[in-house]
Every structure is written in C-alpha cells, then in structure tokens.
Amino acid sequence: MSEGMRTVLSAFRVLEEVAHTQPAGVGELARRLGLPKSTVQRALRTLWTAGWICPDGADVTRWVLTTRAFQVGQHAISDISVRDAAAAVLHELRRETGETAHLMVREGEHAVLIERVETDHPVRAVLPLGSTVPLHGSSNGKAILAAMPREKVQPIIGERLQRYTGSTIVDWDEFFAELDGVTQRGFASNFGEWRADIAAVAAAILDSSGEPVASLSVSAPAGRMSEQARDRYGPLVIEAAQRVSATLGYRRPVRPR
C-alpha cells in the first residue's frame, strides 16, 4: 500500500471516529485508533481544511463534525428512505408483471441500482446491486431526466450522447423528443438501447418538492418484452412510482377544471 493511500485511509478512520465520539481530542483518537498522535493531528488538520470537521469552540483541541458531513449523511438517509418507501411496491410490481422490478437513483450521468426484486423466470436480465446504467440509454435514466427541466439535461450528460448499441439515441434533437414523449406517456421505454438483450419500462419517483429522486422499472430479456408488453407494463410502473412519491410527501398539482 502506498504512503498516499495510507494517509487517505487514516483520514477516513479519524473522521469516522470523530463522528462516534465527538467532541474528540487528539490523544483520545490516537488511543482508540492505535495511531501515532502526529498521524492523527495531520488527519485532523486535513479534514478541517477540507471542511469536514471543525474545533469544538475556540480551543483547537477537541473536534466535531461540520454541517458538510451531516449534509452528505442526509443524502444517504434520503436514498434509504426511498428504498424503504419502495420495498412493498417493488414486490407488488414483480407480482403484477412476473418480471424483475428495479429501483434506481441518479448519480452523476448514471443511474445506480439500489434495490431489486427478481423474476421467477429461469431466463432473466441480471443486474447486480450497485450496478450503474447510463441515463440516456436506460428507461430508469430517461424517466428521471424527463422529470427535469430540459436545460438541466445536457449539462448532466455532457456534450455527447454515447452510443452503446445500434438502438442508442445519439442525436440531441431526437433525444429531447424522446423525453417529451416520456413526459406525455408518464413512463420511459427502453428496448436494447444500453444492452441489446435488455428491455424495460420505468417511471420517475418524486420527492415532496417535486424533484425526481429515483425511478422504478420493470426489466426483462428483450425477447420476452414486446412493444405490447411494454405498453401494458407502463401504466403499472406509473402507478407504482406515484405511490412511492406520495409516501415521500409528493402531491400532484390539482389542475383547474
């Protein structure tokens, strides 16, 4: 292990220990972690410079977490709450369709799989937890993007729409038209745009402020999910996503009659 890697790991260990024992002093941290005081002191100064911790009061001897650490923690809590809110709905969606149900959240230009309920079919589209899929090449990603203002989409993805298969949309005008279609239908559809052997439909999950925080999908091998099946599953994922959104506090605007 390189010296740089040891320094980074030491800093993370110190940060975690401060979180558990704050306010924490150098000597106490060194004893708990089995590290030299000089190493702990350097880690504390680095974490202070980075904005993760600060002195507990005017005396620079004891340390506490800053709001930055709490903000990062809140994002993680938010993901967990989405997972909890969607758990029963995922199982119901799998029962209704007989196919694998996925829950994904956005991370940069990708969607990340945080929960799934597998189909009973022996032939299935397997995607391990933690896997990432491109936003523009997946139904989950397109559902999330379609729920955003259009001017935010390109800065997220970048200048170029990368091609993954012969079905991937790589023209921006065509892609924005696709997002408009998703908005009108209420669900996104994907047929071999990321992997030629996978098809799926998805709908966005909105939080209490109306921001897309995740998406639910039904996914299957492309040979088993025809256009008719996608049209049949679409309303099911819309209803499922709306139920999770309502659990998270989202209320659809009332349209005047």
Task: List the keywords.
257 residues, alpha+beta, six-stranded antiparallel beta sheet, three-stranded antiparallel beta sheet, 9 strands
Chain-wise SSE layout:
Blueprint: H1 3-21, E1 24-25, H2 26-33, H3 37-50, E2 53-55, E3 62-65, H4 67-97, E4 100-107, E5 110-117, E6 132-134, H5 139-146, H6 153-157, H7 172-185, E7 188-191, E8 198-206, E9 212-221, H8 227-247
Antiparallel strand pairs: 1-3, 2-3, 4-5, 4-9, 5-6, 7-8, 8-9
Written account of the structure:
This protein is an alpha+beta fold and 257 residues long. It is built from eight helices and nine strands. A hairpin with a 6-residue loop joins β2 and β3. It is elongated and about 65 Å long. The protein starts with a helix and ends in a 10-residue tail after the last helix. The model has no long low-confidence stretch (mean pLDDT 87).
Principal-axis shape equals elongated
N/C terminus separation: 67 Å
Estimate the strand proportion: 15-25%
Largest sheet: 6 strands, antiparallel
Stretches where pLDDT is under 50 for at least 5 consecutive residues are none
Task: Give the H and E element order.
Answer: HEHHEEHEEEHHHEEEH
Alpha plus pi helix count: 8
How many strands?
Answer: 9
Helix fraction, binned, reads 40-55%
Average pLDDT reading = 87
Cα-atom Rg, whole angstroms? 23 Å
Strand order of the largest sheet: 6-5-4-9-8-7
Which structural category fits the helices and strands?
alpha+beta
